Amino acid sequence: MKNMKRTEADCIIIGAGPAGLKAGTILQSMGYKIFILEKDDQPGGKLLLWNTLSPHNESAMEILNPLLKDLKKNIMTSVQIETIKKSPEGFTVADQNQTIYTSPALFISTGFKPFNAGRKEEYSYGIYDNVITSVELEDKLKNNNITMTNGKVPGKVAMIHCVGSRDIKVGNEYCSSVCCITGIKQAMELRKRIPGIQVSCLYMDLRLNGRFYEDNYKMAQMNYKIQFIRGRLSETNEDVDGSLVIRYEDTLAGKPAKMTVDMIVLLVGMQLDKSVSRICPLINEHTGTDGFFGTGKIDFSLNPQKNGLFFAGACTGPKNITESMNEASRVAFEVHHFLKNSLISENQDQHDRFWL
Amino acid sequence: MKVDGKKVFWNEYQKDIADDQYYFVRSCVRQNFFPGAEEAFIRILRNDLGKDLYTDPNHTTCTGIGYHVDLVKLETTMTVIARQFALMSEAGYRNFVISCVTSFGLYNEILDIWEKHPEIEEQVRDYLYRSTEREFKIPENLVHASDIIFKFRGQIAAKTQYKLVNQYTGKPLQVVEHIGCHYAKMFPEKGVGGAEHPYVLAGFIESLGGEVIDYPERRMCCGFGFRQYFIKASRGYSLSCTYRKMKSMEPYKPDLIVTNCPGCNFFFDRWQYVISETKGETYGEEDNGIPVLTYEEVAALALGYDPWGLGLQMHQVAVEPLLEKMGVDYDPAVKYIGFSGKQLSKPQMPDLLKVY
Which residues of B touch A130 (CB under 8 A)? Predict the structure, then answer.
């Protein structure tokens, strides 16, 4: 305990993705002292994995940079949280360097992790060359290097929707909500960058609920000639020349079918990142039946969290970046009300500055 | 292809395989198709590995084929299987080893039913007692015979006289491994390596120096498929499945096909003859076809057992090209002389597929 560093704040935010950064920006602008703890070596969360975001093809870095502008000194990166404890005064978070962070409010914005495509054994991710995930394709798009393992440019690509989503076999029965539009965006991007490439999207249903998503879908068909097949992949195999032979069911025709392609892109869904719930039973208690935090119900109370624990972003269910940041803004105001009320009752005189 | 990727699956799908004291149940059909295969298994276990293996003249069919073509009711099948377990219990064994893949799937299916519905197990116990006055214990360990060969593959490899290596080129023989559908597709966790990338035969082949081929139609049924063959009108479908598999593996130039299922072995072997007669096509070099052996036959050959004593002359596709490649010492003159010393009937010469 000798070398322990103790840092106090009004709110500790775990996770420096879009939701954590948005909440941090709002709370800081209201005069609260915040710390954002990030396990990776740089802030940004899953935004760092993306090149552009649908439906407007905005650059991920152009979204991230303004979020970081006023927060840099409050973000601690490469933080491995070892313990999270709750006391009547609030939360105590200890990291691997024996730094102790304390605060009355704890804001969880740990986001999601992409579904491990290797769990869909029949798709043979990690076994056959050129079976990649949407995250890996995004990286190729970012580096403008869309090649196969033999260095050649693919001539035919199949995009497989709902990998790890709406799939009872892998225990994820929910829709990850953003994969369909991601697939459409990536398919159009492939067509833009590689002349003559053929792209087929094998979908279960196309769930395009976001604003302008349908416009993208229409554009993909009319302007980019993307082929949409209502079909479910049943297995992937590799042929002697390295091409991939996929077997799928055409669910409109009700028939099994085969297709040979050069590359398969698995549009992986979202799963809760359990790194904090594993170490804190109090947080784990808030895990819903779908594996994400919270109940997903409409919250009518102004100050619903009496215990100072708040959740926002993709850790409360799959959502796009706009929805994540909107939720983070709303929950940041809940944090404000919680802090205001607790400060009034506990130490009113010293915290006049927080009153609205 | 990344073999390391397959190792992930192989590590995940391990199963308990008992060390010794086996109660062995035979297949209904293997002794007619390839009469030396089961005998080779028994001799290898007893003589080469020094194991206690009990063969019971009182056990019957498991009813698998009758069950799968809807001729035998489930209750009857369960009572027959209960009787096999009773025989094992009476003989003082608890480790149940099954020769046939259809049986293996069926035993696992029945155990699964009983586990989920103990009241059905109680009912079957009552049926068995009323019909035979027998009682039974559930086996402590229930495996397929190929699991045992897989388990002891290192010991077998250490004793072999011949490897799956081409003596003329020094290169590994190219081997197709075919796992019967009922080995792991029903219960992937019951198969070594799971259902999608099974390891039970692949690991055994590798231990003997062979190289396993992964071809696009690897996971498809051999063509037997019960109803496909047993319903006479569907036999064309059975043949077309095998044909599709043969065409798919052909570019890899296999030296050998190894199976762990009676039906698969028979149909890969016999349909090659039918395809040669009807389509004028053969696979393998110089119209020799691709030899099809069981895992025990391969183990026994490698251990130096006489090929004709193993009954390899009962295979439709001639095994001599394989024996030559492996460098097996054999006498062509005694191929068709039976154990009694009498001359067996020679097969009639096919038009295309070579017979030696």
Answer: none
Q: Do domains A5-111+273-354 and A117-270 have the same CATH topology?
A: yes
The Cα A134–Cα A137 span in angstroms is 5
pLDDT tens sequence across B102-139: 999 999 999 999 999 999 999 999 999 999 999 999 99
Decide: B38 and B26 in contact? Cβ < 8 Å.
Answer: yes
Find residues 3-62 of chain B whose CB sits inside 8 Å of chain A. 5-6, 8-9
CB contact under 8 A, B215 and A240: yes
Three-point CA angle B282, B286, B292, nearest 5°:
55
Strand A99-103 to strand A90-95: parallel, antiparallel, or no bridges (unpaired)? Answer: antiparallel
- Structural contact between residues B178 and B264, judged by C-beta atoms closer than 8 angstroms: yes
d(CA A283, CA B33) in angstroms, rounded, equals 62
For domain A117-270, give its CATH number from 3.40.50.1980, 3.40.50.150, 3.50.50.60, 3.55.40.20: 3.50.50.60
Contact A237 B214 (CB under 8 A): yes
Q: Could you give all domains of chain B from N- to C-terminal order, each with its CATH number?
A: 16-145 (1.20.1050.140), 152-334 (3.40.50.11810)
The fraction of chain A above a pLDDT of 70, given in percent, is 93
